[in-house]
């Protein structure tokens, strides 16, 4: 920065106080050339051009997703490689079967029964005027076995079972119980995660079979009571449309959904951070991610196996 080309006057006032000699303050004027007042400043920085913010956000979320995906598969690989260590926690495995299976029966009963009833009533309402009545039974059995019971059971249990698993393991992580297990020589993955995943793989198909039975009974009730379709016609259509392949497809979906829900929930709880607030965020993330994974896998399985 350069001062304008002119002489600069600097006025300095001073006072000298002396006990012996009285001296009045005087003014001294010093004249300096303007060139002496030049001040050098750094050159102005060229503003950095920033790219679109949307690409920055997409990039950061993509990198974060890939990091979590790698950690997830690393955890699954560790569980598979050390699955033999889970024999030491067989009691935990059976307790998880009770918690995932037995404790989920009431909600499966409620959801499956009403799903069958709604399917029968809507099928009769839309097609009753121009199809034989027995077709309603076929539509119910196909819809229940192939899609409705496995999918809706998985979505409901994603909230119940998935959130429970994440909260349990996450609470143990933030209270350092997982670290204590490892300090005592236990494999925390084999002790905490493997029993839960195996119990989910075993019990989800059982719950789906139970749900299929209740959905068929609910469909029969809705067709007879609400749609006024004879029970014989409904059962005849259901019998003619039943295929063992459809039931096996539903059980395959249930097994994959059980593994997906329990493994994602275990991962979210095992790597939770941030204390009790982190446990709450991880539980919410578990419900969201498991529901998304279930519907995506449902489409992939339907596209490849049917």
Largest sheet properties? 2 strands, antiparallel
Amino- and carboxy-terminal Cα gap: 78 Å
The helical percent reads over 70%
Main sheet: strand order: 1-2
State the order of secondary-structure elements, H for helix, E for strand: EEHHHHHHHHH
Tell me the Rg in angstroms: 36 Å
What is this structure's SSE topology?
Elements: E1 8-14, E2 26-32, H1 53-81, H2 90-100, H3 105-127, H4 134-174, H5 177-183, H6 188-226, H7 231-241, H8 244-270, H9 275-305
Antiparallel strand pairs: 1-2
Helix pairs in contact: 1-6, 2-6, 3-4, 3-6, 4-6, 4-7, 4-8, 4-9, 6-8, 8-9
Descriptive account of the structure:
By secondary structure, the protein is mainly alpha-helical. It has helices at 53-81, 90-100, 105-127, 134-174, 177-183, 188-226, 231-241, 244-270, 275-305, and strands at 8-14, 26-32. Strands 1-2 form a two-stranded antiparallel sheet. The model is unreliable at 1-21, 23-30 and 34-42 (pLDDT under 50).
Name the features.
306 residues, mainly alpha, 2 domains, two-stranded antiparallel sheet, 2 strands, disordered N terminus
How would you concisely characterize the structure shown here?
With 306 residues, the chain is mainly alpha-helical.
